[in-house]
Specification:
The chain has nine helices and eight strands. The protein is an alpha/beta fold.
Length: 347
């Protein structure tokens, strides 16, 4: 008798398994076969949080509008202490992290509770000033809307005086782009665009933090086949996300999805930032993520690969998991290496 391959990580607390199961049911219910989303139903379960000028989990938050015509805004997270505590540079300015949330380009927002909690945690524990971008969503807004929104936020921060954004305490010449899942994909493409942009006044993108980035292609990889029905993210879901995000008539080898395919933009000749890629052993996207890391290395770029064999897609949203804490530590070490170490990189 053939043994069915295990598709869910072992030893997960019952609470996490229940939450992931409920989220899967919800996402599959609000996704329609015609490529649209029942936004009204989704809004009943996508809990939102409000900004707080008083410290909440050691972080102050505020919302900053970039372009009201497309509801482009970001949530700003500033640690209440607003000073770094690194042993190597205790008085240095805080780095800036521009964060793009996940959700298949179609779900969630900067003020969705799981992402608000995650960005507060990053801001407090790294520590760092975090900007969480509320970009437009598919299918109402398809490629390249999300990439345009992300890059426009970089330009806005570079050119605008922002209330609560004290340049005496944050160093935008040490800017990191970060994102999980679709947000990791978005961070990559914004980094590519930023590497070609020579009009920034102060901002310099020095690092890219890709947490289980959402890449793909027409080819079915071994991990996609083996984990096609994984409970946190299924192959059917990823196909639906690509179909609703990519331009009509495109396939998964479009440059937005297959960043190493025939349409990909070669980064070997540009100042692409140092990159850290996080991979989970129970994530069906892991093969694409490893190829991304290997592609950066072949292009002569500084890249690091961190793998958590027992982690599923989205593990970072659960602080009670040890791998979630490991991730925060790895990100902190990555930032310190680039910002404070004598051999740190600067573009």
């Amino acid at each position: 008798m053939t043994k069915t391959p295990q598709t869910s990580p072992p030893d997960l607390p019952c609470k996490i398994r229940l939450l992931l199961s409920l989220l899967t049911v919800l996402i599959n219910t609000v996704r329609r076969s015609n490529g649209t989303i029942n936004r009204r139903l989704m809004s009943l379960f996508d809990l939102k949080t409000s900004p707080s000028s008083k410290p909440n989990n050691r972080v102050k938050t505020s919302d900053v509008m970039v372009d009201p015509t497309r509801n482009l805004w970001f949530r700003l997270y500033v640690p209440a202490a607003a000073t770094t505590t690194t042993a190597s540079s205790p008085s240095a300015k805080l780095p800036l992290i521009i964060y793009f949330h996940g959700g298949g380009f179609a779900f969630f927002s900067a003020n969705s509770k799981p992402y608000d909690d995650l960005c507060k945690r990053l801001s407090a524990e790294l520590p760092a000033v975090v900007v969480s971008v509320n970009y437009r969503l598919a299918p109402e807004h398809i490629y390249p809307s999300q990439y345009e929104d992300g890059f426009d936020v970089l330009k806005f921060i570079d050119q605008t005086t922002i209330d609560g954004f004290d340049l005496n305490k944050v160093d935008i010449t040490r800017c990191f782009l970060a994102g999980d899942s679709a947000g990791g994909n978005l961070a990559h493409h914004v980094a590519v665009k930023a590497s070609d942009h020579h009009e920034f006044g102060k901002m310099r993108v020095v690092g890219l933090i890709a947490i289980q980035p959402f890449f793909g292609g027409k080819e079915r990889t071994e991990s996609e086949t083996r984990l096609s029905k994984a409970f946190a993210l299924s192959l059917e879901q990823t196909d639906w996300y690509w179909k609703t995000f990519l331009p009509e008539g495109s396939d998964r080898d479009h440059a937005a999805a297959n960043v190493l395919g025939k349409e990909w933009k070669d980064v070997s000749g540009v100042k692409f930032p140092a990159t850290i890629v996080f991979v989970g052993g129970f994530d069906l996207l892991q093969d694409w993520q490893r190829r991304y890391y290997e592609g950066l290395k072949k292009s002569g770029k500084e890249a690091y690969l961190i793998e958590y064999p027992n982690s599923f897609h989205g593990f970072y949203a659960f602080p009670e998991l040890k791998e979630s804490s490991f991730l925060v530590k790895e990100v902190r070490d990555f930032i310190e290496k680039l910002c404070y170490a004598p051999s740190g990189i600067s573009f």
